[in-house]
Specification:
Length: 103
Amino acid sequence: MALNKFIQYCHKAKKSSHRPKKPEKLGVDPFSGDHKDTQRFVHDVEIKLDYFRDSLVKEIDKVSLVIPLLRDTAKEWYNALDPHINKDVAKRRGIKFDSKNEL
C-alpha cells in the first residue's frame, strides 16, 4: 500500500512543470580580469549555470548573475561594452545605439 502511494507521488513529481527557483547568486568567486584566473572563473560559472539550467531559461537571467561577479578590469571591460549591447544603457549614457553592431 505504501509502495503504491510512493509510486503515485513519483509520477506526479515527474509530470510537474515546477521549475527550481532562480538563484539570487551563483556562489562563484569574483573575477578581476587576471588572465591566469580566467579558466577557473569560466569553469566555475559553467558548472553553476548548468546546475541551475532549468530555472535560467533566458540568457539575460544568466548574464544578470555573472555581471556582479566582475571586479576591477573585468568590470571596466563590461562597463565599456554594455552600452553597445544594451539599448537602454546606451540611451541613459547618451550614446547612439547601433543595432547592427556585431559585438
